Amino acid sequence: MTKICEIEFIKLKEKANKFLHSSFDELTHEDVKDYTVLKDNDYCLIIYGKNNKTNKFEIHWATNYPSLIIDEVLHIDENIVVPLIPSKWETDFKLSGFYQSKTYENNLDNPSDYQI
C-alpha cells in the first residue's frame, strides 16, 4: 500500500470538501502521511491508517451516505475508529455493530466517534 504524499493529500482534502459530511476538516498531511487510500470515487472517500497519538487504527472519510463508510469498515479486520460521525447517522452505525467511542474530543455539531 502506498503512503499519501503531500500533493495527493491536498487533492483529497479538496475533494472531501465537496461532500456534505467529512472527517477531513481538521486533518493535516502530517496526521495521515502514512495512511493509504481505501476508496476514492464520486460517492465516497476513505483513507486508513494507524493514528500515532491514540495508537489505534482509524479511517477518515467524506461521503453523503453512511452505508458507504460502514460497508468499507466492515471489510477491515482491525478494531477501527471512525471519527466525527454526524448524530443523524448514529442509528445506522449502531445497527451495524459499531459502538460509541470517546477517542477524540469533538465539538462540531456534536459528532461522535464510533468503533467496531
Topology:
Layout: H1 6-16, E1 21-22, H2 29-32, E2 36-40, E3 44-51, E4 56-63, H3 66-73, E5 80-85, H4 90-95, E6 99-101, E7 112-115
Parallel strand pairs: 4-5
Antiparallel strand pairs: 1-4, 2-3, 3-4, 5-7, 6-7
Number of strands: 7
> What percent strand?
25-35%
Kindly report how far apart the N and C termini lie. Answer: 23 Å
- Principal-axes shape call: globular
Q: What is the N-to-C order of secondary-structure elements (H for helix, E for strand)?
A: HEHEEEHEHEE
The average pLDDT score comes to 87
Low confidence ranges: 104-111
**Number of self-contained structural domains:** 1
Q: Assign a percent range to the helix content.
A: 25-40%
Report the C-alpha radius of gyration, rounded: 13 Å
Structural class: alpha+beta
Give the count of helical stretches.
4
Largest sheet, in brief, is: 7 strands, mixed
Describe the structure.
- The structure is a single chain.
- The chain is α+β, with helices and mostly antiparallel strands and 116 residues long.
- It has one domain (6-115).
- The protein has helices spanning 6-16, 29-32, 66-73, 90-95; strands at 21-22, 36-40, 44-51, 56-63, 80-85, 99-101, 112-115.
- Strands 1, 2, 3, 4, 5, 6 and 7 form a seven-stranded mixed sheet that branches.
- The chain is globular, with a radius of gyration of 13 Å.
- It starts with 5 loop residues before the first helix and ends with a strand.
- The model is unreliable at 104-111 (pLDDT under 50).
